[in-house]
Amino acid sequence: MILLSNIELCPSxxxxxxxxxxxxxxxxxxxxxxxxxxxxFVAIPGAKVNVLDLISPLLEQGCELIVxxxxxxxxxxxxxxxxxxxxxxxxxxxxxxxxxxxxTHYHATEWQSQNPHHILFAISGSNGKTTHKEMLSxxxxxxxxGEVV
Length: 149
Hints:
Layout: E1 2-3, E2 25-29, E3 39-43, H1 56-60, E4 65-69, H2 72-84, E5 89-93, H3 96-114, H4 129-143
Parallel strand pairs: 2-3, 3-4, 4-5
Antiparallel strand pairs: 1-2
């Protein structure tokens, strides 16, 4: 779960006057099919689909926070959604993927400061993540038995 106050640190966030309950944490999702309450959703624009057209089911489930990439079209959609769902916070960012990278950086930094004797591996990319995670886990478990999470 990610500390919401880390959002304010992200350079890609456009509305900097955010107020979050101190120490509140949420899971962040990028796939509408995998969303679970309580959680936040980051809308990553698709080539053919605007994700903001698909988020009504999330909002009905009680999604508290939507992060979206600012554009003229998205501003109109968010204005309409805000009227229908006044309790939901909508946060505009310059780029959704950049925002995720920034938020991940702050989350990893926070985790590392709380776990100074642990090593954090972050694996990303468009394919091969699970294979690399499993290989790395297998090797690390051989080197550090019982210490790998």
